[in-house]
Amino acid sequence: MILLISDLHLEEERPDITRAFLDLLAGRARAAESLYILGDFFEAWIGDDAMSPFQRSICEALRQLSDSGTHIFLMHGNRDFMIGRAFCKAAGCTLLRDPSVVQMNGEPVLLMHGDSLCTRDESYIRMRRILRNPLTLWVLRNLPKSTRYKLARKLRNESQVHTRMKTNDIVDVTPEEVPKVMTQYGVRTLIHGHTHRPAIHKLQIGADAARRIVLGDWDKQGWALQVDEQGFALSAFEFVPLDASLPATASDASKSAG
Prior knowledge:
By secondary structure, the protein is α/β, with parallel strands linked by helices. The protein has helices spanning about 15-25, 55-65, 85-90, 120-130, 135-140, 145-165, 170, 175-185, 250-255, and strands at about 1-5, 35-40, 70-75, 95, 100-105, 105-110, 190, 200-205, 210-215, 220-230, 230-235.
C-alpha cells in the first residue's frame, strides 16, 4: 500500500493539523510501503540551517517512520522549495524531483506539486523560475537567517494578496498543459497538489483513457490518496479534536507515536 499527501502547510500555529499528521504517521503510514509528500509540507522553510524546534520535531517524527520501514519521499512545493538534503537525511526521506515518474500498481505515474501546471498565472511562473534558479537558491541560503525570515514573510503575504485578486481559472491548472505534460512523460495517470481542489478528473489523451488526481490541502480536514490492489482511492478524514490529555507539543506527540 502507498499513501500520497500534500499541502499540509505545517506550522506551529496549527496544532490540529500537526496532531492529524502525527496520527497518520503512527497509524496508516506504518502499514504503508511508501509515503509520498508532494510539496507544501511546511507553510514556510528558510533553510535547513534554520530549523525551529517545531520543525525539528516533525523531522524526528519522519525519522521514526522511516526507521520503522516505510519509505518516505518528499517533493518541493512553492512554500518549502528551500528544503535541502540535510533535512532529508535527518528525516530519513528521499528528495524527489518535480516532476518524477514512479511505478504504482504496475503503471508509470507522474507526480508533481502542481504549481508549474498553472501557466496562465504568468507573473507566478516568472517568479518561480527566478526563485528556483540554482544561483538564486545559493544566494538565498547564504543570507542571514533574519533576512531570510523577513523575505519569506514578505513573499507569503504578497502571495496571499495576489491569489485573492486573481480569478479562479488563473490559479488553477491550465487545461491544455495537463495532456501536454502527460504525453511528454508517457503516462496516463497524473497526481498533484497545490490547487487545493481535490478531485479525480477523467481525461482522454488520444485513444487512451487517462486521469488527473488532485490531492487536497489540510485545513478543515485532511486528505490522502491510497494506492493498493483495489486501485487509487482519494478520501478526506476529519481531524480529531485536540484534547488536553494529548501531548502539548509536536515533539512530545512524535515521541509518543513511536
